[in-house]
Amino acid sequence: MKRNKIVCWLSLLWLPLAQATPVSLADAWQQLQQVSDKLAADGLQMVSAEAEQQAAKELYLPSLTLNGSYTRLEKPLELDITRLNPLASMDLSSLPAQFAQIFAAIPHAMFITPFTEQEVFNASLQAMWPIYTGGQITAAQGIRKAQLAEKQQQHELTRRELFTTLIDRYFAVTVSQSLVSTQQQLVASLTTHYQHALKMEQQGQIAKVERLNAEVALDDAKVTLASATRQFELAQIALRRLLHQTDANASTPMFVLQQAPSLPQVTELTLSQHPALKLLAAKEQQAKGLIDLENGKFKPTVYLFGNYTLYEDDSLLSQMSPDWMVGVGVRVPIISRDGRSGKVLAAKSALLQARYTKAQTTEDLSLLVDQSYRQMQQAAEEIHSLNTSRELAVENLHLRELAFNQGLATSVERVDAELKLSAVNTKQLAAQYRYLQAYAHLMAVSGQLDDFIGYSKQQEIRNAR
Question: Which residues are in coiled coils (predicted)?
């Protein structure tokens, strides 16, 4: 009865491994690039920066404005001729009587000339075209271009970070699934050993303590198997959430390169093409552009201007005003309260900050390459070393099992050999996982993501043969 329960329990543990749809690493990478919200957000920032750059190209174009106005005056503009010399200073009593009578007979309203109505309407087109701005337009366009470059490099940084995250989660599923399989094999082996020990106890060939030791080892293995199963389920959930899928399981096996990549080549690629360095170079260009922009405000601005009247009332002032006018204007800053000197100093500080940060980032990236390369080498050496340890553990388990069946070894020795083999398998899986993590970081930092995907496809082809 207990044996049947054990077989049923083991079959239930195998069930989660067979339900998920297999997804290759290459397909998972393509899927992630399509569904990643972070990548989409960075892409929209890049689109926004590109639109800003296109808008900056129009700064050299002339502006054309349609103006319309309605004005109500306190009173119409009028000219009283009697207030102008010589009439204003003329003494009518000094004139001959006949002239004085003539002037006195003229109504005063006839001496008033209206220039406007009380309500004034006007519509016109105004144009302005800057022809020299002291380099401000060029600087503004350079800043927009550098901002676009910054967003593009940020997008690439996010893409590489997503790649390393995918590798961590993808092969975490593979490792945890392999650990479940390894633990299942251990449980199956310890179950057989327990059943054998139980029969030998019933036949009086071993003491009760030997059988109890086999049973305790089996119970411990079951607990470890349950824990490994939960870890596998969590790894699957993490991968599915990353890929925005409800059903996905890793199908690409873990692998080890036959020949490690060239460290000098990886270092050269990293220091010449890494997006973090290009991003800081873009920030440096922005700071230079800000300096040029602020310095340009100290220089004169020359522009062409024009005005064309579209509509005006029928007043005398409107008749006197020309329908159109063009000209050249110049604006020279003398005293300003916008703190241009402080802004120039701030821009220079930002420039130095970008340069220092770039130098520090270069050192950090060089160190990161060295660390990842050595971690990959160490993991590879550990994998090869554990191959020999595994052969020894397999042979030791075989000998202990034979000795136990012949009564020459205790159950403790036999179980200990079984646990050593399981421990070696677990260590080897962990070493392979660390190897792939280090290799992924090395390829991501040097921009060789396609090489990693290519090696994974080659491994799939080898396993399919």
Answer: none
Instruction: Assess if CATH 3.10.180.10 describes domain 2-35+135-298+339-464.
Output: no
**β-strands 324-331, 301-312 pairing:** antiparallel
No. of helices (H) and no. of strands (E), the chain: 12, 8
pTM: 0.80
Locate the DSSP E strands across 297-434. Answer: 301-312, 324-331
Query: Where residue 6 falls among pLDDT bands split at 50, 70, 90?
Result: very low
**Least confident stretch, 54-68, 136-150, 166-180, 350-364:** 54-68
Measured N-to-C along each axis, helices 340-405 and 275-296 cross at an angle, to the nearest 10 degrees, of 170
Stretch 299-323: mean pLDDT: 79
With H, G, I as helix, E, B as strand and everything else as coil, classify residue 155.
Answer: helix
d(CA 60, CA 130): 7
- Which helix or strand (DSSP H or E) is residue 372 part of? helix 340-405
> To which residue do tokens 């020359």 refer?
302
Contact criterion met (CB below 8 Å) for 441 and 379: no
8 Å CB contact between 100 and 93: yes
Confidence band for 2, pLDDT divided at 50, 70 and 90: very low
Residue with tokens 């006018």: 325
The residues spanned by each domain of the chain are: 2-35+135-298+339-464
Residue 6 CB burial class (10 angstroms; 0-12, 13-18, ≥19): middle
What string of DSSP letters covers 270-318?
HHHH-HHHHHHHHHHHHHHHHHHHHHHTTS-EEEEEEEEEEEE-SSHHH
pLDDT at 277: 95
Express each pLDDT in 365-396 by its tens digit.
999 999 999 999 999 999 999 988 888 888 88
| Residue burial 103-131, b: 16+ Cβ < 10 Å; e: rest | eeeeeeeeeeeeebbeebebebeeeeebe
DSSP category for residue 94: G
Give the per-residue pLDDT at 9: 45
Q: How far apart are CA 465 and CA 450, in angstroms?
A: 23
Rounded to the nearest integer, the mean pLDDT of the chain is 85
